[in-house]
Amino acid sequence: MTSPEAVFLGLLQGATEFLPVSSSGHLLLAEHFLGLAGGGLAFDVMLHLGTLAAVLLYFRREWWHMAEALVPGRGATGDRRLLALLVLATIPGGVFGYLLDDLAATTLRSPWVVAATLAGVGALFLAAEGVARRDRTLAALDWRDAAVIGLAQALAIVPGVSRSGITMTAALFLGFRRAEAARFSFLLSAPIIAGAGLHEGHKLLNGTAGPGPEVLWGTLAAFVAGYAVISWLLAYLARHTFHPFAYYRIVLAGVVAALLLWGSAA
After folding, report:
1. Predicted confidence (pLDDT) per residue in 200-255, tens digit
2. Which residues cross the membrane (predicted)?
């Protein structure tokens, strides 16, 4: 893999990790249709670190307040409560990710699966936009909400679902404002991204792969794209709907299906 390819994959990973369009789905499609294979396990680990750095840096005040709330006699009750809810919402995704890791890496790695999940979650987005009341803030988040969003996040083990997309959709159905749904989804991404990086990093320490010179460029690209997308999307959702992302997913699903059918008929 060349450095330009590494930068392209880093930008793709960083942007689609936080946009509700599926990073795993886009990377799989890039591999299938463009022949852009990843840079191995070391590259995957570093891309995760790039996106993790983006979400930690952007929400540095929130993370600091939550860490401070762990110290007896310091911090606000709300920050301590938010941290507890993030832990609760992380559990289903961590469990399912651990149990179904092999299935996700083999059977579910199919462009047809990606096409189906892109369209399916796109339709859910449109449904949530149509029926949700969207008047709740994170201050109203409770244990039931965290459990529902956490269970939704577990579905992201399937390529094309999108971790951010499915958690934002669940939050919309629960009545949260769009920007608040995105904010909780982004905060929730940190432990999952860190867990994925540690899981792959453990394999890396066992000697299954080694880093190449292009790794730094891909990591930097993932960080820059991730940070920019978080900042832009939170501002965008304060005034706009999720409709463009839903339509994009559905149109892309149609294009992928058409290309696959054309390829099988050729």
Report:
1. 666 555 554 455 667 888 899 999 999 999 999 999 999 999 999 999 999 999 99
2. 33-59, 82-100, 112-132, 181-199, 215-238, 245-265
Segments making up each domain of the chain, as ranges: 3-265
pTM of the complete model: 0.89
